[in-house]
């Protein structure tokens, strides 16, 4: 499809940052062309640098405009396609959505550093190191608190799917593939993300990829 929007991403099996804008664009029915650059290949860095001065994906091209950093891309899309409800409309809810999206973008490095996103593998439950456990618990606190204050009758953090959900979607896949214990509230939220048609498309396309990255098993944390 020829559009004036191109999203450059990495492999769907492994690229958690790529998933965020891709999921929201597909969910909100924004047409775009997609370029996939597989990670951990000899040409990965040079290929990414052709598209992004930061040397990272995702990166969005919209005509002559280039935007990188997943959250900046999502914010740009919310401005450019302002007829969709990318953020909650209520100012209080919107402030909270922006805050938890930013917390995800900037934080949880212990969890992200050890629990690589890998949709092709599941791992047995284990005891995680204290800093990772702290991140896991904080994410679940955010989900519970947000669902109870802003979720209403909907299935997502703010009822309907928003950018905040897109930011946490790769954590949902990690919690499932790494068998993280979740209470009923977090579990049903995770299922809502996994059952989202756009998420199912991403997962199906990931399963068709041929590239394999062997991260090994996460370190024993006791
Ligand atoms: N903070 C960035 C993180 C982007 C990022 O780390 N992307 C990884 C793929 S998930 C990447 O481009 N890795 C390639 C490399 O570092 O060579 C964002 O939000 O977009």
How are helices and strands ordered from N to C? EHEHEEHHHHHHH
Count of all domains: 2
Helix content: 40-55%
Q: In CATH terms, what is the fold-level topology of the largest domain? A: Glutathione S-transferase Yfyf (Class Pi), Chain A, domain 2
Any overview of this molecule?
The structure is a single chain. The chain is an alpha+beta fold and 222 residues long. The chain has two domains: 5-80, Glutaredoxin (3-Layer(aba) Sandwich), CATH 3.40.30; 91-200, Glutathione S-transferase Yfyf (Class Pi), Chain A, domain 2. Helices cover 50% and strands 9% of the residues. The chain is built from nine helices and four strands. The chain has helices at residues 16-27, 44-49, 70-80, 91-106, 109-114, 130-150, 163-177, 184-195, 197-207, and strands at 5-10, 33-37, 59-62, 65-68. A four-stranded mixed β-sheet has the order 2-1-3-4. A hairpin with a 2-residue loop joins strand 3 (59-62) and strand 4 (65-68). Helix 1 crosses helix 9 and helix 7 crosses helix 8 (184-195). The protein starts with a strand and ends in a 15-residue tail after the last helix. The mean pLDDT is 95.
Question: Summary?
Answer:
By secondary structure, this protein is of the alpha+beta class.
Features:
four-stranded mixed sheet; alpha+beta; Glutaredoxin; 222 residues; binds glutathione; Glutathione S-transferase Yfyf (Class Pi), Chain A, domain 2
């Amino acid at each position: 499809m020829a559009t004036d929007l191109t999203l450059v991403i990495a492999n769907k099996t492994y690229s958690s940052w790529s998933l965020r804008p891709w999921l929201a664009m597909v969910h909100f029915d924004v047409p775009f062309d997609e370029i996939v650059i597989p990670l951990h290949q000899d040409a990965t860095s040079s290929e990414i640098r052709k598209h992004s001065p930061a040397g990272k994906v995702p990166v969005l091209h919209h005509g002559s405009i280039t935007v990188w950093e997943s959250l900046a891309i999502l914010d740009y899309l919310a401005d450019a396609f302002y007829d969709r409800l990318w953020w909650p409309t209520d100012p209080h809810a919107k402030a909270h959505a922006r805050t938890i999206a930013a917390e995800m973008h900037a934080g949880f490095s212990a969890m992200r550093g050890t629990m690589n996103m890998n949709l092709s593998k599941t791992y047995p439950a284990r005891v995680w190191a204290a800093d990772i456990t702290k991140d896991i618990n904080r994410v679940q606190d955010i989900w519970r608190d947000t669902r109870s204050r802003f979720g209403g009758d909907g299935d997502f953090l703010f009822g309907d799917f928003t950018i905040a959900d897109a930011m946490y979607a790769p954590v949902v896949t990690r919690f499932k593939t790494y068998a993280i214990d979740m209470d009923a509230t977090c579990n049903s939220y995770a299922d809502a993300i996994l059952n989202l048609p756009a998420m199912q498309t991403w997962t199906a396309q990931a399963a068709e990829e041929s590239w394999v990255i062997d991260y090994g098993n996460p370190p024993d944390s006791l």
